[in-house]
Amino acid sequence: MKPTLPAKLLQALAPWHNAPAWHIAYSGGLDSTVLLHLLAGLAKTQPLPPLHAVHVHHGLQAAADAWPAHCQAVCEAAGVPLRVMRVSVQPGASLERAARDARYQAFAEAIGPGELLLTGQHRDDQAETLLFRLLRGAGVRGLTGMPAQRPLGKGHLVRPLLEVSQAELETYAREQSLSWIEDPSNGDPRFSRNYLRHHVFPVLAARWPQAVNSLARTAGHVAEAQGLLDELAQLDMQAAQLPSAFPWLGLPSLALAPLCDLSDARQRNALRYWLAPLTPLPDSEHWIGWSTLRDAKGDAQPIWRLADGQLQRCNDRIWWIPTKWSEFSDSPLSWSHLQTPLQLPGNGQLYFSGHAPDGPLSVRYRQGGEVMELPGRGRRDLKRLLNESAVPGFIRGRLPLLYQGSRLLAVANLARASTGQGDDWQLQWAPPTCDQGLS
Predict the structure, then answer these.
(1) Which residues define the annotated binding site?
(2) Percent of the chain whose predicted confidence (pLDDT) is above 70
(3) Taking the model in full, what pTM does it have?
(4) Where along the chain is ATP bound (predicted)?
């Protein structure tokens, strides 16, 4: 016997019954209205987590001003608390993308640790996504379609209706006499997804009635293939994830030589896997940046600029540097012994281990031409000391320098670049963490 729609939903959400709360992304449209009705009904007979609904008001069209009131009335009838969130959509090349980004940012703010956001995307949406991405030339990861679940904010986004067709949702809505909002923009063919929905899929379905099911099934096959590629990437990454000589930097980095031993295709696969949590991935044409970085001469310090940061190569290692991580103030700071640790604007913290040297002390940054008087070594140029320690070039300008009056005493974290570090004291620097620097 074919399972009912409530049974399908309950089975899809079985792994999440211990979540602190379930939040329904409720636009007021057909899909989310059915999802809300189903969950409210199940909550009367099943021990579900507390239900909440979230309606995001984009303010993009006049008709939308009436939607929160409709959503409020439906939620009150269903006994589900509603939160209305108003967002500003940033103008850009794609209004669809901008609205989606604003919407999911609001959703991320609405859910707490371990909580779920449930959305109403269904099998037809999955087929639509696959065809849309295929036409844009997406890679294997893009052609996996929408995942059934993924992290969102401090919780997770779950799509429990991906195995359900739009026809099933429409049948349920009619049988239950549900009312929902028809968004006027859903018929506008200027939006790519609407064009596919109203002009392309009807033609495909006329010739291939199972087109939607077949495309959604293909997305599942591609997702399985992507899983195998991820497993290969994890194996290839093991040799490249050797610890760096500067663990205190806290930046993601990889040894270059193990990557170069792989084929070009496996290099790209491993890097895609590594970069995916850090930045939007480049399209095929922009991977030339990786080749340039990889093949540069040993004494070069090439840069591959990506959407949310850059890869730099230093001393046969590649480093990920987030855009925000690079932003800091290099203004000098006076340092009183009472200030421990010393907060460096945009540059972490500075502190002593052991007894601090006598003042007056100040913290400055490299300008060029600095020299130090080192016990037993005489006057040494700071640039040479940094070269001896193989300090990556991108960090040299933000290494804190400790001065006693006009005398350079120490370079943070470099025991060999100090006038007196040893048993008495050491200058320690904790740079911004990855959480502070990564987007």
Answers:
(1) 27-32
(2) 95
(3) 0.80
(4) 27-32
